[in-house]
Amino acid sequence: MNNVPLTSRESQVLWHLAQGCTYKRIADRLGMSLHTVTTHIKSIYRKLDVHCAAAAVRRAIELRVLNQGETHAASY
């Protein structure tokens, strides 16, 4: 990883966000509450210094937190 200290759970949430999943779908897939997903996303946005999902994904790619190929993987 790089200098953006995302937790492993935040990284999982970010990956699903990059796949275009809704917060509800992320919650279902990761077995957490919608509130927890929202909390993780707020933390991701703060750490990446962004205000929306598209900017978070773009910034994560720029910082090499996400590989660009990961954002095009098929959703399950």
What profile does the largest beta sheet have? none
By DSSP (H or I, 4+ residues per run), the number of helices equals 4
The stretches of 5 or more residues where confidence is low (pLDDT under 50) are 72-76
Average pLDDT confidence is 88
Number of strands: 0
Class inferred from helices and paired strands: mainly alpha
Helix content: 55-70%
Query: What would CATH call the homologous superfamily?
Result: Winged helix-like DNA-binding domain superfamily/Winged helix DNA-binding domain
Would you state the CATH class?
Mainly Alpha
Describe this structure in words.
This protein is mostly helical and 76 residues long. It contains four helices and no strands. α1 (8-18) packs across α4 (53-62). The radius of gyration is 11 Å and the shape is globular. The chain starts with 7 loop residues before the first helix and ends in a 14-residue tail after the last helix.
Short key terms for the protein model shown above:
single chain, 76 residues, mainly alpha, Arc Repressor Mutant, subunit A, 4 helices, disordered C terminus
Short description:
The protein has 76 residues and is an all-alpha fold.
Topology:
Blueprint: H1 8-18, H2 23-30, H3 34-48, H4 53-62
Helix pairs in contact: 1-3, 1-4, 2-3
